[in-house]
Each structure stands twice: as structure tokens, then as C-alpha cells.
Design a protein that fits this description.
With 98 residues, the chain is an alpha+beta fold. 46% of the residues lie in helices and 19% in strands. The chain has one domain. The protein is globular and about 30 Å long.
Length: 98
């Protein structure tokens, strides 16, 4: 507990245009409490819940700057709940590597 993403990771998340397995794996690897369903797949929807953790909120701020990724936002709810619909290819690729 207490992991904060580095500036290098945040810049990568802001600038990367390829939303592929490596991109999603980077988010998951940096996401605090990912193992507690704060990072969860529900079909083709990636759910990110910040849990109020400032490191997760930093990741969300970086992702907001990434137009390619942020266009995948399906729903945002108060309290730090974000739902992204990924193309079938990215969702299936993610499941194959789990």
C-alpha cells in the first residue's frame, strides 16, 4: 500500500496512442488496490474505482489528457468511479493474458 505512479508512467499514460494490452497492463500495474476490484473487467467494460487514493486519482488525471483513451469513457460516477468500454479486441486480449 502507498504506491504512487512515477512521472514517467503518468506521461506515458497521457501521450500513448495505442490502447493495447501493454497500455492496460500499465494502468493495472500502477493502480492501487487493483486486486480488490478497484480495477475490474465486466465483459468489455474496464471499471476503475479510485477509492479516494491520490495515486489512482493522478492516473485518472493523466488518462483524461489522453484523447484516444478518454473517448472510451462510457460512464463516470461521483466518488471516483469510471467505466471504459474497450473494443472487443483489447478486452479479449486482456482476458487471454490473465
Amino acid at each position: 500500500m502507498g504506491h504512487y505512479p512515477s512521472e514517467v508512467v503518468l506521461r506515458f499514460l497521457e501521450k500513448e496512442n495505442s490502447i493495447d494490452h501493454a497500455f492496460i497492463a500499465t494502468i493495472e500495474g500502477e493502480w492501487e488496490f487493483a486486486d480488490c476490484d478497484f480495477f475490474a473487467w465486466k465483459g468489455e467494460v474496464l471499471e476503475l474505482h479510485t477509492g479516494g487514493w491520490s495515486g489512482n486519482e493522478d492516473i485518472i488525471r493523466a488518462l483524461r489528457q489522453n484523447r484516444v483513451f478518454w473517448e472510451l469513457l462510457e460512464k463516470e460516477e461521483a466518488g471516483g468511479h469510471y467505466y471504459f468500454k474497450l473494443k472487443k479486441k483489447e478486452a479479449e486480449e486482456k482476458r487471454r493474458t490473465d
